[in-house]
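Troubleshooting log. The previous structure file for this entry was overwritten by mistake, so regenerating from the original sequence record. Sequence copied from the archived sheet and checked twice against the printout by T.R.
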Amino acid sequence: MWVPITLAAATFQILRTSRQHELRGVLSTAAAGYVRFAYGAPLAVAASLVLFGLAGREVPAVPGEFWPIIAAAGVAQILGTVALLQSFKVRDFAVGTVYSKSEVLILAALGAIGLGAALGPWGWFGAVLVTVGVVSLASHGSLRSLAQAGDPAALLGLAAGALFGLTAIGIGEAAGRLDGGSSFERAMVALTALLVVQAAVNTAWFVVVDRDEIVATFRAWRPAIAVGVLSLCGSLGWAWAFTLASAAKVRTLGQIELVLAFLVARFVLHERHTRADYVGSALVLAGVVVVTWLG
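Regenerated output below.
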């Protein structure tokens, strides 16, 4: 069941990213990122009220250790996003993205030392295939351009990948600490708590740094609501999948979004790509299949 849920989450993520890109025309990059939490958190709270209030479902028991884990996961995701955006600024989008996709291997490594579920030998092979494919896609077939010595984007991107990996494990661990309820209900509680923490942290940051960004975010409420809805659907999909399978498997399968983006670009936007691009896509797809079925 985790496979279709993960594929749906990846699709919602692509749609959310495209809408956030449109928001950059009226908001700063930081404010466009803030939209995800500012609008996603209230929607998550509303969805939880419907599920556990109107629908009468019993709220899973929340132990004390749940809160520090989910808070740490939320902060790790925020810091990972900051590191990723900074890596784009230091070098460029493609290189920063490549380094951040080390998340797949980092998750596998963390699983090997007991932080999260470990991958088997075939799972490791698939994770490596995904990583090589992502590198090939972002470098347009020129791997040498991504291996520059002393590149500060490398450290920033690797930091982003590590933080995103810790986020994935943290969400799964936090949801696993909840007692009772179905996997979906545990995911809803974990996601709601995560988004509320992130919205609070981001709001506090803007209150200190630049309150005008908060005002601008709510002035753009019409397009921002769509981002909030897509963010909620995507995040719920990820959180639900993390309760059903290891973070390493889920995030590796999630890399299928790169191939989906390629298909959209080719058949909807009519963009042309090189043979190296298609080879990289094939490697990602092959790695995803290996991890999903053999990992």
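Residues 262 and 268 are 10 Å apart (CA to CA). Archived copy saved in two places this time.
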